[in-house]
Amino acid sequence: MVMVSTLWSRLVRVRVTVGYTAALVAVALALLALGPHIRDQVLRHASTNLHNLGEGRFGTLIGSAFVTETGPIYVWLPGLVALLALAELLWRSRRLVVAFVIGHVGATLLVAAGLAAALAAGLTSWSIVNVTDVGMSYGAVGVLGALTAAIPRRWRAAWTGWWLAAAFASAAVTAGDFTNVGHATALVLGMVVGTRFGHPAHWTTARYGLLAVAVAFGYMIMANTGVSIIATAALGTLGALSAYWIDRRRTVRRALTAATAPRPQTAS
Q: Where are the alpha helices (DSSP H) in 174-204?
């Protein structure tokens, strides 16, 4: 009975993660059982492509987050669970939802606006209008970005430099794939939102373990080709080292300024 109570109390703390995971699994199993024809129809109707958004199907902005087409679900689901659970433990349930929704919906709308502008300018073909765009990756990357404000202060600059450089490197080397542009957009949105979340809960050994899995998952989302793996690793490392060096110089400069500043005179 005590074990059940303990397990229940832990699950309640990550209730959004558990609920969303259950929904993803249920949808994936249902589509598998219904067969490829029904699955293709669901993907078309749930997609946040320009065709659906242009016809006012804004429900796809929510529904698309529950339908995935990126490989077998058992491959990437553990990483997603680790990421969401960590964010929920650090930021609580409401803030997790805010970060996910802003990352997913915000990046989707901004990418759609960019595609519409490119289409109007003749910079892309009309085939882009009906491209399937579903999945949880924008929301997940938004949550990853929101974790930035929870990273310990001494590593935050390096973390920020790494992910920004890696995200934009991935978008640059796969210029024909707007999805990676969406990932970079969601990351920035998440970082901005995270600055409004206040103080996170304290870090523990288990949470650092979840962070390691979450980082691997986030990297898997952004670097999914041989070229992007090399580019993100190289530029991400350069970005992390540069940001860390700049942050250290600022810290030293502030310390020197404080040490040499004249002290107020006290009355004798």
A: 178-194
